[in-house]
TrEMBL record:
Name the record gives this protein: Phosphoribosyltransferase domain-containing protein
Recorded family membership: Belongs to the ComF/GntX family.
InterPro entries according to UniProt: ComF/GntX_DNA_util-trans (IPR051910), PRTase-like (IPR029057), PRTase_dom (IPR000836)
Stretches assigned to the Phosphoribosyltransferase domain: 93-170
Organism of derivation: Candidatus Nomurabacteria bacterium RIFCSPLOWO2_01_FULL_33_17
SUPFAM superfamilies the UniProt entry points to: PRTase-like
Amino acid sequence: EYRYPVIKKILTDAKYRKNFGNLKIFGPYLASVLLDIVIEYTELTHYKDILIIPVPISKKRLKTRGFNQADIIAESIMANLQPGSNFKLVNNIIIKIKDRTPQASIHKRSQRLNSPKGTFQIKNLDANTHKSKILNGTLCIVIDDITTTGGTILEIRKILLEAGAQNVIGLTVAH
């Protein structure tokens, strides 16, 4: 949880002080949680692939910050999963098309929930079907550092399902 001082320090140091090395310590734990989730969700349904998708940041923020914390967390999770498994890191299928007010500076829950709407877009959709061949029949695990209202994860879930994903789950370091 974000209220724990150690978690809060690691996440704020990464985002605001460019000290992102400690983000990798979450990889083993999140990989374990992910495996438990996948076992539960794949018992009844077979998925073509399981895609690990980090929440993207805008080009402007990437240029300023120099890294995307969700990418680092996702890469650390992948490093702790069995090689040859059907997990695939896909960090270029969603783009952030709108730079919005950072969630941390929005205090009303209703505004936080609505803020991400229309912010993200799936790349390379089929012009006729508006679906993605990569997403068709997949279980998508959306990775982010922190969630408060779930607005970002919900918005990304919506566009992934519209583009052909079979199921979408959010996984974050803290809430």
